[in-house]
Design a protein that fits this description.
Elements lengths: L2 H4 L1 H13 L4 H7 L3 H4 L1 E4 L2 E4 L7 H13 L2 H9 L14 H4 L8 E2 L2 E2 L1 H19 L13 E5 L6 H9 L9 E5 L4 H9 L6 E6 L6 H18 L4 H5 E5 L2 H7 L6 E3 L16 H7 L1 H20 L6 H15 L4 E6 L7 H13 L17 E3 L11 H6 L6 E6 L9 H18 L3 H10 L4 H11 L7 E6 L4 H22 L10 H15 L9 H14 L1
Parallel strand pairs: 5-6, 5-7, 7-8, 8-9, 10-11, 10-12, 12-13
Antiparallel strand pairs: 1-2, 2-13, 3-4
This protein binds 6-O-phosphono-beta-D-fructofuranose.
Length: 547
């Protein structure tokens, strides 16, 4: 048994789970009319209702004991102070510094990083203003109309999600496109719609070694040069964002168009850095700074607020409750806001690349579960596909429901209907429908005894299925910043309790290595026998069909 599962706090939760699992949420609500007030929190315009969770005040106290036992307060201080908490890579994890206001001091290796952070933000402002007001133009003198971000993972998902989420703040003159996949279809389908004279490419890559990104960047450059007939066009039509300035210069990017960031920014935590340039170009730098300010407000809340009223701590510990004490293995994120359509995909990388690990900080294999599978789709669409399983499947799948109180597109009764669906779903998941209730319903419909009894089991809903609801006034840059930072810190809380390093990602390396070895075999003609029978079979099938 590990220290964690052996600990008093863990054991107390285990014992408590056997008590709670016999209780029903509907009963808890009936017994306590103040449950919503007790189990909800507000920060500015953001409300977290966590009352529809399988918890009592005692549960919360026990969960917070576990957080304290894990020395969460020390870890929070260590992260914000720039300690090298990413031990396997000997790096700090300082995304919080990227959104700290001017005048703050944050030291890494004895050097204050804030002047560099603000130097790059100033560069982003100059560049994005110049592109947006048309003073920076393409090779033939035309203003830019399309920005294509070439990047993958953390160098794409954040900007893609944020540009979609903040479309109402987006420029009417400038479109943002995102190309990630090494499948040429991604690039080809994007370029089909674009005019090379008015297209600006941003090559985003922390390492500037990622195969997909460099391959797409090479092909984009070839497309541009072919259509504009001049190699010099590259200097005006390409910008780069990277920590690897040697590689950007080798690629031939004009140094004035290179935006730097640092190894203490993790890829999936990087949208606040220059990686956010496509966002700044699309919504303008003032709005980008609002996004940073929202994240900073959440940072301050996380750092300063007692655990009992701390949103990321509460959300993180609720996740632990279900993953470790109810064996939940997946978690749904269900935004009732079409603009948040990419939010679940963004969280998949944030959560699963951070905490999808089975070896703890001391190098031991964990004897407890870690990250749940994150998935989701916007409501109401999901209701007509996978919600069946949420309501009546065999698994418990905790879920976050997110919704704005006001729509950017008020139209008839659409928004009231959207919210009615959102609230109805969490209510239905919590309440369920008992056999007695189903029987009464069917009898009222005049269904005869025999038909009634055979239909009854299918119409029963077990209920007791937990959810959080996050409501916000409207999805604006500040609110989005708060939301993203809330999930970043929730991930951090869980990583601390699980005693894992949330900031490395060795698990993605092996596949990359094998693909590197395999590529020459696919490019050649030689029949292969050097792999397992399945891989040999696939390679040889490809080679035979290719020829
Ligand atoms: O392969 C995973 C990963 O390393 C992510 O962590 C990262 O966000 C992505 O690849 C892209 O890396 P880069 O920004 O260095 O191109």
């Amino acid at each position: 048994m590990s220290n964690l599962t052996h600990s008093t706090a863990w054991q107390a939760l285990s014992a408590h789970q056997t008590v709670i699992s016999k209780q029903a949420l509907r009963g808890m609500f009936r017994a306590d009319p103040a449950r919503f007030d007790k189990f909800s929190l507000q920060l500015e315009g953001l409300l977290l209702d966590y009352s529809k969770n399988l918890i009592t005040e005692e549960t919360l106290a026990l969960l917070l004991n576990l957080a304290r036992q894990s020395k969460l307060d020390d870890w929070i201080a260590r992260m914000f102070n720039g300690e090298k908490i990413n031990t396997s890579e000997q790096r700090a994890a300082l995304h919080t510094a990227l959104r700290a206001p001017r005048g703050t001091e944050v030291n890494v290796d004895g050097k204050d990083v804030m002047p560099d952070v603000h130097r790059v933000l100033d560069h982003m402002r100059r560049f994005s203003d110049a592109v947006r007001n048309g003073s920076l133009r393409g090779h033939t003198g035309k203003p830019f109309r399309d920005v294509v971000n070439i990047g993958i993972g953390g160098s794409a998902l954040g900007p893609l999600m944020a540009c979609e989420a903040l479309k109402p703040y987006g420029s009417a003159q400038l479109n943002a496109h995102f190309v990630s996949n090494v499948d040429a279809t991604d690039l080809a389908e994007t370029l089909k719609r674009l005019d090379p004279e008015t297209t600006l490419f941003i090559v985003s890559s922390k390492t500037f070694t990622t195969q997909e990104t460099l391959t797409n960047a090479d092909s984009a450059r070839a497309w541009l040069v072919k259509h504009l007939g001049a190699e010099e066009a590259v200097a005006r039509h390409f910008a780069a964002i990277s920590t690897n300035l040697t590689a950007t210069s080798k690629f031939g990017i004009n140094p004035d168009n290179v935006f730097e960031f640092w190894d203490w920014v993790g890829g999936r935590y990087s949208l606040w850095s220059a990686i956010g340039l496509p966002i700044a170009l699309y919504i303008g730098m003032d709005n980008f700074e609002q996004l940073l300010a929202g994240a900073h407000a959440m940072d301050e809340h996380f750092r300063e607020t007692p655990f009992e009223r701390n949103m990321p701590v509460i959300m993180g510990m609720l996740g632990i409750w279900y993953a470790n004490f109810f064996d939940a293995d997946s978690y749904a994120v269900l935004p009732y806001d079409q603009y948040l359509q990419h939010f679940p995909a963004y969280l998949q990388q944030l959560e699963m690349e951070s905490n999808g690990k089975r070896v703890d900080r001391d190098g031991h294999e964990t004897d407890y579960a870690t990250q749940m599978v994150i998935w989701g789709e916007p409501g109401t669409n999901g209701q007509h596909s996978f919600y069946q399983l949420l309501h009546q499947g065999t698994r418990m799948i905790p879920a976050d429901f997110l919704a704005p109180l006001a729509s950017h597109n008020p139209m008839g009764e659409h928004h009231a209907m959207l919210l009615a669906n959102c609230f109805a779903q969490t209510e239905a998941l919590m309440l369920g429908k008992t056999a007695e209730e189903v029987r009464a319903e069917l009898m009222a419909q005049g269904i005869g005894d025999e038909a009634l009894e055979s239909l009854l089991p299918y119409k029963v809903f077990p209920g007791n299925r937990p959810s959080n609801t996050l409501l916000f006034d409207q999805l604006d840059p500040r609110t989005l910043g708060m939301l993203i930072a809330l999930y970043e810190h929730k991930v951090f809380v869980q990583g601390v309790v699980w005693n894992i390093n949330s900031f490395d990602q060795w698990g993605v390396e092996f596949g990359k290595q094998l693909a590197g070895k395999l590529l020459p075999e696919l490019q050649g003609k030689q029949h292969t026998s050097s792999h397992d029978a399945s891989t040999n079979g696939l390679i040889n099938h490809y080679l035979a069909r290719k020829s």
